[in-house]
Amino acid sequence: MTSINKNEGTTLKSENGNSNKCRRITDWLYKAIINRFHFDGGWIQNHIANCPRCNRRLVDVGKVNLALSAIKSQPHKLDLLKRANTQAIGVLKHSLREAPKAEKLRAMLPEPKLFEKCGKYAHSTANVAACITILLLMKIGIFSSMDTFQTQGQKAVEQYYAGQVGEDLADEIFST
Amino acid sequence: MFGKAVNYELIWDFPVSGTVDESQRWILSAMKRHGQGLVTLLWRILGNEEDVCDAYQSTFLQLAHYKGRQKPEHIKSYIFRVASNTAVSMLKYRAAEKKRLSTAIVNRGGAISPENELDSKYLQETLRCHIAQLPEHLRNVIMLRDLGELSYAQTGRILGISAATARVYRCKAVQLLAVWMGKEREERK
């Protein structure tokens, strides 16, 4: 696949090109397969409805997913981390047990991740970002329109003067 | 002379013990950084708080005694693998004990009702038993990806496989679990 050149740079470039091409083809194939065999596809739905074997398989896979979701959604007590840390630190050597960090770990409670903490602000942040973008676009649009308006106006006045008092005089007036 | 030697020994001893203490501090750092994730993973695998504490303790004890108290190169990988292996051993043991002790109860519950089939606790326990029986490579992926909620890339890195392989293993694991869940339902009918 890779063209062998004496120039190393060219080889690298062609390798990159090939890998990009491969990636593009993979993406394209993936999209094509998804479009054809997507679960919502009518013929798949019809087949599942009429085929008892596929029906049963779908039910079983659904059950696995349901059980996984149930396991994930089951909460544990808030102090579990604290208890686990205390028990684990208890079997470490004395110097580690007495370290100030160990004391903190013994009192540690689970904290939501930064992503989860910020999750509730995500919607409003997106709204603010959208507003800022719209304002920026409007500002850019207004200023560019004003510039165009000014240039066009100046040209019109220049042409008027050129028609009325002659081009030489008009050039003299607008060049200063 | 002897007194001086003793004094030197004391002076020599003090910094040595100090450096050993310092070198083992990384265990506490690892506990702080990965503890929460580890507890969540163990809780999801075991579903029992006492067992979670035991598995957690065992994991850090193994970490403290890793190759003559050395620091593993990839602590996260080591901790997560040890924890999941410990949890699976406990799960297998628990399942075997349960089977041995409550054969009569299981036999009595032979006719499974539709509401029991959708019972959350029953489903969870059945799935846990089946996960413990999966081949190791599939089990590791489903544990880290689904129960540990790590990304495919992280799962792959921990297990030393590519993200795509992890994805394939996960798919195979779910298929196998589905087959086993289906078989159990048929057997009970």
Task: Tell me what you see in this structure.
The complex is a heterodimer of chains A (176) and B (189). Chain A has helices spanning 8-37, 42-50, 52-73, 80-90, 94-97, 100-106, 114-119, 122-165, 167-175. By secondary structure, chain A is mainly α. Chain A starts with 7 loop residues before the first helix and ends with a helix. In chain A, helix 8 crosses helix 9 (167-175). Chain A is flat. Chain B has two domains: 1-101, no CATH class; 112-189, Arc Repressor Mutant, subunit A, CATH 1.10.10. In chain B, helix 1 (2-46) packs across helix 3 and helix 7 (136-147) crosses helix 9 (163-188). Chain B starts with a helix and ends with a helix. Chain A binds chain B through residues 56-57, 59-61, 63-68, 70-72, 74, 76-77, 80-81, 83-85, 87-93, 95-96, 99, 101-102, 104-105, 108, 110-111, and chain B through 17, 20-21, 24-25, 27-29, 31-32, 35-36, 39-40, 43-44, 47, 49, 52-54, 56-57, 59-61, 64, 120, 123-124, 126-128, 146-147, 149, 174-175, 177-179, 181-182, 185.
| Average residue-wise pLDDT of chain B | 80
Rg from Cα of chain A: 35 Å
Alpha-beta content class of chain A: mainly alpha
The beta-strand count of chain B equals 0
Count the strands of chain A? 0
The percentage of residues in β strands of chain A lies in under 5%
**How would a textbook summarize the main sheet of chain A?**
none
Taken from the alpha-carbon principal axes, the silhouette of chain B is: globular
Mean pLDDT across the residues of chain A is 80
Separation, N- and C-terminal Cα atoms of chain A:
66 Å
Which structural class is indicated by helix and strand composition of chain B?
A: mainly alpha
Radius of gyration of chain B: 22 Å
How many domains of chain B?
2
Give the number of helices of chain A: 9
Q: Which term fits the overall shape of chain A?
A: flat
- State the separation between the terminal residues of chain B, measured CA to CA: 87 Å
- Give the proportion of residues in helices of chain B: over 70%
Poorly predicted spans of chain B: 1-21
Q: Based on the structure, what is the oligomeric state of the protein chains?
A: heterodimer
